[in-house]
Design goal:
The chain is of the alpha/beta class. Helix content is 39%, strand content 19%. The strands form three sheets. Strands 1, 2, 3, 4, 5, 6 and 7 form a seven-stranded mixed beta sheet that branches. Strands 11-10-14-12-13 form a five-stranded mixed beta sheet. It has a two-stranded antiparallel ribbon with strand order 8-9. The two termini are 30 Å apart. 38% of the residues are buried. It binds guanosine-5'-diphosphate and magnesium ion.
């Protein structure tokens, strides 16, 4: 379940990505290596069950800081998108390839209006950021549209000959983009089209593409560079139909670097930080940190962590679950207590968790045990947020 960071050039995508994927000060590195240069590990916060159970945890995949688990999520720094990329301009195909892997998108917009449509820097306030939101949505819609239109006659003919369901045909066209049949079906219902695809106009097909984008690639807007944006711009962005979160990626990166250098204590997502040794700071640093502090007070933080958590917990509706092998000691087979946190789609069942841990565990599933209640449950038992679950499988 990767989150893609998208937007036109120079809006702060890479800054956001660097800030979000920088390991917290206390943690040298996540125990992960990523395959691609533009894929990194960020995290979302969860409540570690260790306090509730009165145990000390031995985190493996998700570090625990004072009871807060930092659960890993993969972030993709998507290639910058310029106008008409769907026609092959700029890094169009690279964009599609990155988009393919992303389950949700964070659209970084320069809320201060200091970059033109193609990403060229300009005076603050010169460009209207609302245009960028419409632009990116439009761009993706056209991309999907061109994918379908290319073979549209063939698709229609094939359907009338084989009697194939349109949802199925569309899903096959979109498998490359990791859009599921359920998402296509949801989009079809919303688009409310004539049952006969040969009757669809181009406009209707384009509208269907927009619905497929909404269900298949849910997106929130990060109103970035908020540290220099006007209140009017923020207000206008706030009125959009999408979720808009004010951010300053630059401030988040500065705070993480300062924390790493030992100058301050800062937990990502917090609305403040504490200086460790104020006497060590020079005037310029003091002034900069003062500005950041005021910003955080006004917006409730830098917004970066909020974007990730909104994408994972609200848009993708994932929940953290803790599989353990021993429901009494809460250990895995190495004896580590509450080692791993997994993000599962809300509504997942015990067998799906077993498969997430290991294919064998899913294949040989017998039953599960809820470590909180010690109740034995079946394969179709629906998981709840922060469940601690033991899976019993045939050996
Ligand atoms: N004022 C301000 N500048 C930012 C912010 N985020 C990024 N920038 C600056 O915007 C420019 C472009 O940033 P970059 O991350 O390379 O953008 P990308 O092309 O979208 O990846 C750089 O000069 C950044 O320092 C922010 O939150 N506030
Ligand atoms: Mg970049």
């Amino acid at each position: 379940m990767d989150v893609g960071i998208v937007g036109k050039p120079n809006v702060g995508k890479s800054t956001f990505y660097s800030a979000a994927t920088m390991a917290p000060a206390e943690i040298a590195n996540y125990p992960f290596t990523t395959v691609k240069a533009n894929v990194g590990i960020g995290h979302v916060r969860g409540k570690c069950p260790h306090e509730e159970f009165g145990v000390l945890c031995n985190p493996n995949n998700a570090p625990c800081e004072n009871g807060t688990r930092l659960i890993p999520v993969e972030l993709i720094d998507v290639a910058g998108l310029v106008p008409d990329a769907w026609q092959g301009k700029g890094l169009g195909n690279k964009f599609l390839d990155d988009l393919r892997q992303a389950s949700a998108l964070i659209h970084i917009v320069d809320a201060s209006g200091s970059t033109l449509a193609d990403g060229t820097p300009c005076k603050i306030g010169r460009h209207n950021p609302l245009e960028d939101v419409a632009f990116l949505e439009n761009e993706i819609d056209h991309w999907f549209f061109s994918l379908l239109q290319k073979d549209w006659h063939k698709i229609v003919r094939q359907m009338s000959m084989d009697g194939k369901k349109i949802d199925r045909v569309l899903q096959e066209k979109f498998t490359g983009l990791a859009i599921t049949e359920a998402q296509i079906s949801a989009a079809m219902r919303k688009a409310n089209l004539d049952p006969r695809p040969d009757k669809w106009s181009d406009d209707e097909l384009l509208n269907l593409c927009a619905e497929i984008r909404r269900s298949g690639k849910p997106m929130l807007v990060a109103a970035n560079k908020c540290d220099q944006a006007s209140d009017e711009n923020l207000e206008a962005l706030g009125k959009l139909a999408v979720t808009v979160i004010p951010t300053s990626a630059e401030y988040e990166l500065a705070l993480k670097k300062a924390a790493k250098a030992g100058l301050l204590d800062y937990l990502p997502g917090a609305d403040s930080f504490t200086l460790k040794e104020p006497s060590k700071l020079n005037m310029a640093q003091k002034k900069a940190l003062d500005k950041i502090s005021q910003f955080m007070e006004k917006f409730g933080g830098t917004g970066v962590q909020k974007c990730l958590e909104t994408a994972i917990y609200d848009m993708l509706d994932l929940i953290p679950v803790y599989p353990v092998e021993d429901e009494n000691k809460l250990t895995n087979k190495e004896g580590l207590v509450l080692p791993d946190a997994h993000l599962m789609p809300n509504g997942s069942n015990a067998r799906e968790l077993a498969y997430r841990v290991h294919t064998d565990l899913g294949d040989n599933f017998i039953r599960a045990i809820d470590a909180r209640t010690k109740r034995v449950v079946g394969h179709d038992h629906v998981l709840k947020r922060d469940d601690v679950i033991t899976i019993v499988a045939r050996r």
